[in-house]
Amino acid sequence: MEAHIMQVEIWTDVNCPFCYLGKKRFNDALIEFDHADQVDVVHRSFELDPTAPTGTSGNVIDHLAKKYGRTLEEAEAGERQLGAAANEAGLEYVVTGRDVGNSFDMHRLLHWAKELGQQEQMLDALYAANFADAEPLFGDTERLVRVAVGAGFDEAATREVLADEQRYADEVRADERQAQEFGVNGVPFYVFDRKYAVSGAQPKELFAQALSQAWGERPQPTLLADSDACGPDGCAVPQN
Amino acid sequence: MEAHIMQVEIWTDVNCPFCYLGKKRFNDALIEFDHADQVDVVHRSFELDPTAPTGTSGNVIDHLAKKYGRTLEEAEAGERQLGAAANEAGLEYVVTGRDVGNSFDMHRLLHWAKELGQQEQMLDALYAANFADAEPLFGDTERLVRVAVGAGFDEAATREVLADEQRYADEVRADERQAQEFGVNGVPFYVFDRKYAVSGAQPKELFAQALSQAWGERPQPTLLADSDACGPDGCAVPQN
Asked: Sorted alphabetically, which CDD domains does this protein's record hold (chains A, B) (predicted)?
């Protein structure tokens, strides 16, 4: 998980259907990429609604209708569109009955999983639990524990992380601060070696193209100063 | 340890006196840097002599004299110079009696420690064991275990990492491949957000200046494409 030649940072929220879809499309592009084994992918935290109260905000369609001033029919139609796009990419998507809510605890779990080198597994499990299953997920510690355990995480350790709301909270906020620095106002947001960015659940072909371009133009740092180093000929002060 | 605004990657070898000195001078600059809490430092592996046989290569002065065709007096004078520079920076330095050898196992330990979020502790302990103490270190598993335990690492876990030579070996090689990509032929080598680089144990003032410059000019990724994202106004296809 370390020191690959190119780093792709993906800002994401477990609440975000386009993030779920984008992850699949990006991965489809990545597995066909010639240098995939030299690409390090890291998922970073972004809360679509950091002001959402802790726990659940109730049924997703009711919530979207209320929040954006749409009718229930309009909100459901939007979800159906998202579901169709997800299905087309090979993903399951439950259109009605899911809940929505504050995702901060899930971002903490994702940072913990990253430390264990198992961030992909945690994110896939959370996405599946949220989008491919109607059972409420937000603010339900028992369900989060089941999801994590189902993805291979230790039950007691998962409970410990969930119980202490300070754990990985700084890491979540640091990701969000970084997103702010980059002017990110929507997710998914993909950053390639901090040089190029792509916003949104792009088609697989576009991700393939972005990977190629970012790879071909990956940065070479500019040397500001050179002296007093050890090299193959020993440790000597270079002649200036 | 994650997602700070600026990342500094430092290629280093535990065999390298200028790396030991550079770490102190860089840290002295970093603690006075205004945005220190937003800087993420990661130490990367570089073997000065990857062809060194596993274990110890014997006394450092004998080894340097033989390897670079110097007299023992010349080799010792070089070490005295390095020792004086280290002392001036506030570091202990044993001039004669230390050994030298293959550092691959130490790099594996450093990657393990990184995963635990304790890379600084491991590196400081290894530097001190190598440069501030005459007792042989290279290829001495028992001493490496004592050094790691003294720095707060679990004994059984340290033994496990040392016993399995495949553990973190890929990570060490990935760091070295990355160094090669950047044309690094000596260490320490400092890379700021993959945009700027500094080679060698520079004076603290130069590190301070490099930190400021890299911070002021930290990269903003160029947006290649924008669509289908979720933002504060919901999940919608942007108008192109």
From this structure: DsbA_FrnE (cd03024)
